[in-house]
Design goal:
Strand content: 35-45%
Shape: elongated
Order of helices and strands: EEHEEHHEEEE
Helix content: 25-40%
Radius of gyration: 16 Å
CATH class: Mainly Beta
Bound molecules: zinc ion
Number of strands: 8
Strand order of the largest sheet: 1-8-3-5-6
CATH topology: Jelly Rolls
Structural class: alpha+beta
């Protein structure tokens, strides 16, 4: 069995941003040379997510509205966590959107269902943060 590990870095210009990272993941899969197996992609920070959904701009606005209803960023004082930080909402948003995804690798490709794309969800950005890619198989 082969295994491959890579860290990808992202630095968003806004506090919250969704980035389609599918092309990056496909590139890492090609570099790994693995044709059959599993790929794990996870955020390495507790205020960012990796999730799978549709790359549709209306849906992305819906995610933003929905997450702001569940865990509004402001007022910062509504959260116990916000004593030395102001990112309690980002921790909550990350928990709802998930830490990682696992995708089957078949014949050297990501074995997606229709419209599936992998996203990095940043909820406390404007700084460098990492995503881990781990691929196992042969
Ligand atoms: Zn925090």
């Amino acid at each position: 069995m082969k295994s491959y590990r890579k860290e990808l870095w992202f630095n968003t210009s806004q506090r919250r941003e969704l980035i389609n990272i599918t092309p990056h993941i496909q590139k890492e899969l090609e570099i790994s040379g693995i044709r059959e197996g599993l790929i794990l992609v996870n955020a390495m920070h507790i205020t960012a997510s990796v999730f799978i959904n549709d790359d549709e701009s209306g849906l992305h606005k819906d995610f933003e509205k929905w997450l702001e209803k569940l865990a509004p960023e402001k007022p910062y004082s509504q959260y116990n966590h916000n004593t030395f930080e102001d990112n309690a909402d980002a921790h909550l948003k990350r928990t709802i959107m998930g830490r990682e995804v696992v995708v089957a690798v078949t014949d050297g490709k990501l074995d997606f269902g229709p419209w599936e794309q992998i996203f990095y969800g940043e909820f406390d950005g404007k700084r460098k943060k990492r995503v881990l890619v781990k691929i196992i198989g042969e």
